[in-house]
Amino acid sequence: MSLQYELWLSDDAGRRLKLLKEFSFLTYTRAVSSLGTCNFGLPFRPFADEFNPWFKPDWRLEIWRRPQSGSSLRLENVFMLRKPNVYTRAEDNMQIIQFYGRDGIDLLNRRHVIQRGGTEWTTKSNYADDMIKQIVREQMLYGSAVDEDGTADNSRAWPQNEFFVQSDSSQGPIIEKTFEGQSVFEVLKDIKASTFQLNEKDAANRRIFFHVEPYYLSSVNTGSGAPVGWRLFTKADFYGADRTKGIEFSLENENIQTPRYGISHLDEFNAVYVKGNGRGASQAIESVLDVTRINSSRWNRVEAIEPAGGETTTAGLQNVGYAALNVGKPQRELPLEFISTPATRDTPRSLYGIDWDLGDRLPVNYADLQFEVDVNVVYVSLNESGEETITGRNEVLA
């Protein structure tokens, strides 16, 4: 086992079963408002001798890592294991058991908005962050979950006192949305996209992020007997920290690699016609335009039609249009990888977990241009030789 890591196998309540000292390899990703995954392997025979059965769904893997020598271990993430795979390694005929897992976001994928359209559970108007929490409470929080008719139904809820939802804080813009039949995760991603588009329209509209984090219950007197639960939370403006006044990331500073910059208008659309209820002359149609983008060229008005049969109000139709506009904006692409490097005589230190982290906004200099780039995904890999690879990646620029 690498001295830089501790891997703990836990049961589905977070009770530790074993410190995995002899793991062979480890790969995991952390992502902003998206699904994180893990993949690790260890010798099968001693593991199977100790555990019978040698797999149960939602056993957990806690990953702890030291950002640098001498520092304290830091919890990277907790993953729920969903798939084992046993194979024989060709070079030495050793059997390896490999596990695949997903982080707490997967809980949002396991519930859908099952209530009928036109009800209070499928059509909402609220602050975006409060709406996210309200939806999660109604679809999976013990004591608040409801069935398809809106009747209290704790059989749809996660275990009592092991899943929590952060208190409302009313930080995001007020939006209206209809969303029956979708997975909770897809609904939350749409709400997030709406806040990003509204932020572009007016900076006073704050961007909203969400995540499901491991939640240590020692500070909460739940009496459940489970040491680690889960909590949904939201954040406004940035998921991580604003580090744009700190270390510059550039090829010269040797803390980024494989950058490439471009702007693509190929799939742009900037005039969205949202079609709601009704047919013929009675059908509600609302247009949502990005006038600045339309006027960037005499030829640049690009139209799209977005169906929204479930929406019944003007505000609801407009919100569908805002989310679509965010998808259809020109893609300012700066694919690159942030790398974790110690300081040298000629370059600054930029260590993952100390100088940059998931969700941070970082200053990047490339192609004689200055950018502010969000770290949306962190990829960490430890191979069988103990060699560590860490890269942070961004999506398209805001």
Notable characteristics:
single chain, 398 residues, alpha+beta, Phage tail proteins - horseshoe like beta roll fold, 4 domains, 3-stranded mixed β-sheet, 6 helices, 23 strands
Look at the helices and sheets and give the structural class.
alpha+beta
Number of strands: 23
What percent of the residues sit in helical stretches (DSSP H or I)?
Answer: 10-25%
Average pLDDT figure: 93
Largest sheet: 11 strands, antiparallel
Q: How many independent structural domains?
A: 4
Low-confidence stretches: none
Shape: globular
Topology order in helix (H) and strand (E) letters:
EEEEHEEEHEHEEHEEEEEEHEHEEEEEE
Q: Which strand order do you get reading across the main beta sheet?
A: 2-1-5-6-7-4-3-22-23-19-13
Total of helices: 6
Beta-strand residue percentage:
25-35%
Radius of gyration from CA coordinates: 23 Å
